[in-house]
Amino acid sequence: MTLLDLANPTRFLSLTAKVLPWLAAATAILLAVGLYQSAMAPDDYQQGATVKIMFIHVPNAWLAMFVWGVMSLSALGTLVWRHPLADVSAKAAAPIGAAFTFLALVTGSLWGRPMWGTYWEWDARLTSVLILFLMYLGLMALWRAVEDPTRAARAAAVLTLVGAVNLPIIKFSVDWWNTLHQPASVMRMGGSTLDKAFLIPLLTMAVAFSLLFVTLHMAAMRNEILRRRVRSLQMMQAGQQAA
Amino acid sequence: MTALAALIRRDLRVALRVGGGALIGVLFFLTVVVLMPFALGPDLALLKRLGPAILWLGALLASLLTLDRLFTADHDDGSLDLIVMSRAPLELACAAKAVAHWLAAGVPLIVATPVLGLLLNLDGQATLAVALTLLAGTPALTFTGMIGAALAVTLHRGGLLLAVLVLPLSIPVLIFGVAASNAAIAGPDGFGAPFSILCALSLAGLVIGPVAAAASLRHGLD
Amino acid sequence: MTLATMLGPYASFIVASYAIVGAIVVALIAWIALDYRTQKARLRELEAGGARRRSGRGVTDIA
Amino acid sequence: MQPAAITESRNVMESAAFRLVGRALTCIRGGREIFADLGFSLSAGEALAVTGRNGAGKTSLLRLIGGLLKPAAGTIVLEGSPDESPPAEQAHYLGHRDALKPALSVAENLRFWHAFLGGERDSPPAALAAVGLDHIAHLPAGYLSAGQKRRLSMARLVAVRRPLWLLDEPTSALDTAGQALFATLMTDHLAKGGLIVAATHAPLGIATRELRIGGAA
Hints:
The structure holds four protein chains of four kinds. Chain A is 83% helix and 0% strand. In chain A, helix 2 packs across helix 4 and helix 2 (51-81) packs across helix 5 (149-181). By secondary structure, chain A is mostly helical. Chain A has six helices and no strands. Chain B contains ten helices and no strands. Chain B has helices at 2-16, 24-40, 44-67, 72-76, 79-85, 90-119, 124-155, 160-166, 171-186, 192-220. The model of chain B has no long low-confidence stretch (mean pLDDT 88). Chain C is mostly helical. Chain C has one domain. Chain C contains two helices and no strands. Chain C is rod-shaped, with a radius of gyration of 26 Å. Residues 51-63 of chain C have low confidence and may be disordered. Chain A binds chain C through residues 43, 48-50, 52-53, 56-57, 60, 95-96, 99, 102-103, 106-107, 110-111, 113-114, 212, 216, 219-220, 222-223, 226-227, 229-230, 233-234, 237, 240, 243, and chain C through 6-11, 13-14, 16-18, 20-21, 24-25, 28-29, 32-33, 35-36, 39-40, 42-43, 46-47, 49-50, 53, 56-57, 60.
């Protein structure tokens, strides 16, 4: 790693040191407000209190897709501009995205349980999220399989972009497969039909979770930069002959 | 004994470190099981009926595919020569490697079974039954698979050839594994007999697998 | 008013969802914080090791 | 128990009766006769340099002695050995490949072979210091250069004591300092009454007898 390559990550590190505390504080405040609003929200006339699960399910589901978008942008950065921070951003985002996707699945299944009578129904929406989850796990496995981070970054970038192109196709296929077998999904999450009483807590929570992602992502990127420094220092140490 | 413990510890460490593929087997298992409903349709009653069979097929393929590198990795870096030359009997060294592989790749499959059971609409008791049969049966899969893995070293190729060689050998395990799971789900009768045969298969594999693998390695090295 | 009466018949599902989200988010934060500490410690150790080697060489030079 | 066993084996190693003898060896690989009717004898404290052109069967001879190949004809015995175990179990084999796992640290790699090979042993840290790798013991073996990997393999020979060393092109990846270090290790080993059989093109830096196979190079 040359000094020039280190320049950008170094500036990034000093930036995170300044920004992270503020971001964390903003996230905490917004989360608290969001939680309060969702606690105060009235029951839905159809779903009763279970509508409260929506306030955490929808932000997680939205982040599950958003994080893949962030990774796709980073993948472009890796492949087109070969920016060292892009690799770091893509790698740091993957486990966080996988966690949000997992939460979207779990909360979706808990939300569906009262309606379906089972924890899992091969509902079009949830099934798509499940496939997204599998793709996240595959991507993380790819990152783990290759020790050299720059080589892993190229491979992961290609896979991320292929995934981004494929996700709409998968979504469409799953929807088609699902309607073939059963009537439309029980869950309703149409934004426009949503009452204002639900919309405000939902939006607050969505912004709060997005901020949470930005905070976590920044912190994880910082860790990854440090990890790479440790690695290159260790390589340098290995190169030195014993005295 | 310390030699074998050291071998098990090393293989576990390598499997769990970066570059090791212990958890990829679970991911493969998950993916195979998730694929099934897309072929069969999302009919929960059907999935519930086929659940044990799907889980067993997934576990069979997952444990087989992860076995591919059991000996070839050691052969490629030269470790296998030293293992063959060592004072520890090669049969026991093979058994130790199989145990390490089962711990790193087989046990995670069993742990993942409840989650997959949920996706296939299996109830708690059925999931428990499948997990129990997998616990009793996956060692047999590892021990028969290791014969193929040893042959892969001899033949300088693995992958599909390994699968073709080993899959027929694992048919008995599949039969009694699925039979025991279905017996536990459908009724109280008949779980004991297939389950004990499954255990017997694992015990027989424990004896036959290492001996056959060691014989294959001894004669196949060059 | 207890939680159960407030949240209706499916209180356990609602509480469970919030609890799981909380647990995973806390686990993520803990993992990232711990990772930061380990990397920082390793970096410090490596830098200290390099410094020690240099000073060690100095000592032998004097001797 | 342990110290008694050590002194006993040392005495045997030092006695002149301890010899590695190969008689009328024929090696056939892949239907091709590599060499035939090959004989050699090596006493304690001696090194044998096996030379010959590429494909003459230098590596095959080492693998025959190590029991990794079966001779088509002939025998290999360690005469005057303290136990009845075959030469393979009293030998170290240092092949082309270093038998290291890149994911494990330098110390973990050595500790594994130390525990796995067993028998009479020195401590792994001392062996690492002997080959000059103690300052990077905690690093993954994957970070090492080819020469450093070779040194780590050499540490195995030091950490676990075996009377017979089978070395296949041992100095190929080593720099001058590494070759000098290895020469010292081999001299020590011979002085303790050990035996060395090395397949090599380059001089090893120690006094050796030569076994040329397959005619002129």
